[in-house]
Structures are given as C-alpha cells and as structure tokens.
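Notes taken during the Thursday session

The instructor put the following on the board and asked us to keep it in front of us for the whole hour. The protein is Putative thymidine phosphorylase. We were told not to look anything up and to reason only from what is written here. First, the residues (502 in total):
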Amino acid sequence: MADDGLFPRRLGIDTYQEPVAYLRQDSPVCRAEGFNAQSRVRVSCGGRSVIATLNTIRSDLLAPTEAGLSEAAWRLLRPAPDERLCFSHPRPVESMSDVRGKLYGRPLEEAAARRIIRDIHEGRYADIELAAYVTACAGSRLDLAEITALTRAMVDAGDRLDWGRPRVMDKHCVGGLPGNRTTPIVVPIVASAGLLMPKTSSRAITSPAGTADTMATLAPVDLDTRGMRRVVEQEGGCIVWGGSVSLSPVDDTIIRVERALDLDSEGQLVASILSKKVAAGSTHVLVDMPVGPTAKVRNPEMAQRLEHHLVATGEAMGLAVRVHTSDGVQAVGRGIGPALEARDILAVLQNREDAPGDLRERALVLAGEILELGGVAAPGEGLAQAGESLASGRAWDKFRAICEAQGGLREPPVARHRHTVVAMHHGTVAHMNTRSIAKLAKLAGAPADPAAGLVLAVRLGDRVEPGAPLFTVHAESRGSLEYALDFLANHPECLSVEEDLI
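Then, after some discussion, the predicted structure tokens were revealed:
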C-alpha cells in the first residue's frame, strides 16, 4: 500500500445521491481506524473531501491497496490518476441533538434549524439520521416559525441569484397530478409580455415525468448558472433543470429520503418550494395546488393550511405568494411521460385543433394570474391577455427562441412499442386513479425512457362503446410494455368504465 493512501477505483455503483466508499474488511485502514460496515468516514484526495458511508467487502473485488467509490462519491471527489484516497473519522454530528429534541416535542429554533441544515448540506448525515430528521418534521409537526427558520437556512446553504429587477416571476405546482405540464406554456407567455421568468424545474423522483424531464425532450436543460443567466437576459425566461445550479441543494437530499419513507411533511414542503424560489431570485410566486382524492393535496382542509403557510412564510422571506387551487380529480392533457407530455405542449403552443383543451385552459389561467401579479395586466384581464399571446403566436415564437438560446429545439422521441387498452362494454368513464395511472406510465419505462408512458383517449364522464380506446401504453422495450400490462391486469382501478344498466 502506498504510504500516502489507497488507490481509488471507480466501481460504477449507482447509490443515487449518497456517497459510498468500499474497503476490504481486512484492509489495514479498517484495522487501524476501527472502521466497520456502515461507519461514516471522511474520504479525502487532492484537497477535496466527502463524508461517505462505508461498505466492507470480503471478496477479491478490491485489492488491499484499493478503495472503491460509488458514482456519487466519485463525482464529488474527482480523483486524478496520480491521487490517493485518505480515510479518517469525521467530527460528530452535533445537530442530531436538535433532531432528537424535535422528536420529543421541543420546537426548532432558528439556530437549531441552521445547525441541522448545515450538517445535511455538508453531507454529515447518514441516511438513517436523515430519516430521523424527516420523521421529526412529518405531518403537521412544524409551525410557522419553524417553517420560516428552515426555509431561511435552506436558502443560505446554496447559491442565490439576483436579477436586479423589482419583479421576477415564478410558479410552482405542488404536484400529484400526471400530465399537468403547464410551465413550458406559461413561461413563454409571461416572458413575451416583458416580465422576467427564470424557471428552474425538477426532474422526476417518483413520478413519470418532471418538468425538466419533459423539457429535456425539446431542448437542453442542464445549464449552469452562467448559461441560465445568459438565456434569461437574452429572452426574458428559461426552463432549466434546477439540479444543474446550486439553488437550495439540501432540498434534493431531504426529498430523496421523504420519498423512500413515503412520509410527507406539510412544513417541509413549504420550505422546499419557497427556499428554491428565494434562491432563484424570484420576487412574485404563483403556486398551483391541485386538490383531489389521489393528488398530493387530498382535501380542502389540507389545501387551506398549506396556503396559509405558503403565503405567511413567503411574506417573512420577502416573497409575494399567491396560491391557485385547481381540480386534481383526473390527469391533465393526454400524454403522461416526458415525450408524450412534450407533444401536448407543442400542440397547445402551436394552436393546433387537436391540442388538449384542459391543458390549454389550465396554462392560460395560471399565466393570466402571473401577468396580473406582475403588474402587466389589470385585475381580471390577465386571462384574456394570456389567451391573445397564445392565439397570436407570440408565445410559440418566444418558446422557440428560449429553446434556441438553451441549445436548440428538437423533436421528442417516439416509443417503439405500443398497446391500446379498449372498453369492454357500453358505459361512462366513471373513475380515474391518478396514482395508479402514474405508476402504469412508470412501469412502461418513464421517465428513464423519455418516449415511454401512456396517452389517454378519454376523460371522466365520456361515453364509450365496446372496443373504444381508453388509453395507449408506450414503451421502448417489449419487456417494459409487458411489465406495465401485468400491473394493469391486477389494478383495474387505473381507469374504470361504469357499465350501462339495461
């Protein structure tokens, strides 16, 4: 073994965002430092360091002189061929006492929130400690003061943009509604009216598509801060992936564990949304909140609480926040999946006759509210102004210009395999489980396969005849298509037709 450390080896193991290091159990480093499996270790090389979870190996996969790195750890350390890895013990995670205090009912004061967010940002929390933090905040356990403290701490942990404008517009959808891809329609309408709208969007975590996934089938979205600023200064707006700019980076780490645990925190949701808006330099934000039995916000009572916290926390952070409550009973548009949603967006922007009317109307309502919030449309006149921008072609021209500035407009891909599901009897489309619909699209391959997903042929209340198409599943491989259809056979609640009684 080299005196100055171990030889780095890239093992190609995807551990998502969690850095993981691998050592032989009989490694001299393990013996000398007392490391065991699941120990937290500091790995350093070339002046860079990361805190990782240690996995130990009992086979010859690694030599005693080697240390393996997961993909996440390798990206963070970027070891050069002549560099060696050094291992040491990280300092104790002192903010865990604040997490334990919250678990036992002690409020999170601002200093405690800063300590927790700082340690998460620095990678000091193992997943089990992150799980404890998420559990401590779950449900409605955070009050307004705690939400504001966490929001401020999350903003301060990342970069913050300043556009030098008194009004910088933004929007966010709380989520839970497949196909509700209004952002690529709203941004060009707002930007063509002279307002600034630098939109950072997320990729899917558990859904069939995020806005960034859909937009990526139309134009590059992996712009850094400099590239984002160039596009916005040139066109007045952009639609880029938030992960390529360091805005509220702690949020992505927390969301990863929330999703794994299937735990929702209303307060953490507010901090997540608003920390990214503040960091992006926004001054005025419209939040779209779909409410429905299978949406993320399931009832009016939860919607009312969230609206109060969003508006009040926004005010404390210097943001003007408006909440728009929308119908979350069924999926929006026809396509569910990145490329299929992109085709709906193009149809709306190009004013085609086959454009999904519900997506068009939702986007126009939201754009109209933002135009009013931004002061370029009088109260009550925003919807008409947004509609004129779309009908005249100005929105389409601006969208194309934004895509060209981001790297060029392209055609969404088309899946190789399709299967159409048809009605078995006369009747009325009576129920749509949006969660099951989303899962079906994911099992077909979305969003990893951008062309995968499904296309709806009906809406709630539609009358159908035997053999009429209900939806078509799109997949890149035969295996993915069959996997999705197997799920559908056991989950008929995805979309049900109430049979006529004769």
